[in-house]
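Re: the request from the purification team.
They wanted to know what the chain is likely to look like in 3D before they choose a buffer screen. I agreed to run a prediction and write the result into the notebook, where they can find it.
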Amino acid sequence: MTMLPADVPCVTDPRNPQPVSGLEKILRGLSVFTMLMTVPQVLTIWIGRDAAGVSLVSWLAYLLSACLWFVYGLKKGDKTIYLACVGWVLLDLAIVAGVIVHG
């Protein structure tokens, strides 16, 4: 069977990626910022050995969400998504494990 070329031009040219928009730059920065804002929670749990008031159910939901976003980012081939999710999975795992150990 012969495949004919599409009648329309390609939406994006893989050889010429679109420039990063201002909103994308802000969102990337916010992703890093929110991860940094989570580090004190991890330190409180692991160094201070205090998991009082930390919801295991909430952090398990965040962990599940980060894992699903990671898979989505891999399937889409979007480094912005899946690389950020690596950080989130690690932080969420640290909190979940800390709540289990010190909670």
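For the purification team: The mean pLDDT is 89.
Please add any questions underneath this entry.
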